[in-house]
Amino acid sequence: MSQTLIKNIGLLVTNNSEIDGTSLGLIEKAALLIEHGKVxxxxxxxxxxxxxxxxxxxxxxxxxxxxxxxxxxIFAGDRSNEFAARMNGQKYEAGGIAYTVELTRKASDSDLLxxxxxxxxxxxxxxxTTIEIKSGYGLTVKDEARSLxxxxxxxxxxxxxxxxxxxxxxxxxxxxxxDLVCGQMLTEVKSHTxxxxxxxxRGAFTTEQARKVLKAGIAAGxxxxxxxxxxxxxxxxxxxxELDAASVDHVSHFNNxxxxxxxxxKTVATLLPGAEFSTRSNYPDARKxxxxxxxxxxxxxxxxxxxxxxxxPLMIAxxxxxxxxxxxxxxWSATKGGAQALRRTDVGHLSVGANADFVILxxxxxxxxxxxxxxxxxxxxxxxxxxx
Length: 388
Ligand code: NIG
Ligand code: FE
Prior knowledge:
The protein is of the alpha/beta class and about 400 residues long.
């Protein structure tokens, strides 16, 4: 029986509130015992059981691995010129997606896979041990199906986003495209996907079209989540709550009725500060949501248009500085919040029985993730009980 003990942890974040009555479930001078890729024991370092293999964390802080619940990694090319134009005053609109669609359709399967692998590797080395990956740059039956079969090689958290935008060949025929998404496309992709998603916003799909797509996905056995209220106030959040979506994502605009609905529901609000950063948009007030009782997650939204980063520590720093979250709230949202947005109970925390997915930071406190922005504070990443 192979056991590994991580001892002499200065501060352990378990996200188990039973430990100390706070959401981070903190233990000072802690130890963590791992067996068969799972957490076997947690507690004070001085009362830790013995193990064959012992790692000394030298007083550093250990946190659960980040659970990044929103990414678009299956694409070709980049949009650096669009970014530069935006920084020179141009507004972000959903239309830029068409350019990535064009390049993605032309790319080979192996190029799409190696690009996504490169980004997943980047994410893992910055502490992301669970990652969600969407399709959405294919927008034909064949290209959505291959996007998802590539995504499935990298993660179990795959999401069908055939309803990302209406592709150019369906211009003026959005309802016909919605019928394709809900019909043949869904049939072809459903064995490769856990989630169904739709971009419900200006320049993408209306609330009615979004409802149709999500309901078709649900009827096919998929679980709903959606992009809502990134570009303007709309009914996307209400739709997500109505359909018991695991998460409504972006939520850059919301009103009091949205807050009330979310607070009474199991639907998580997933905030994507990388998108506000890269589109120079106003950040939503996360504190307002949290104070009202809404569960908030943070994700990187890695994509070539609105947020070309995989870095969850940057999301934490931005959420603290720009969205009024405390460092503790931001860390919880990037770990257990992300797990709740994926309806997962085995990741995002370090209680007995959870996956042994964790990060040893270079510092003695998680506060440094926001306090030292842009600095690589990741010392070691462990996934399924093994150091990567
Ligand atoms: O989540 N908002 C819609 N989709 C992506 C952006 C896609 C793109 O610009 O390529 C997002 O931000
Ligand atoms: Fe997105």
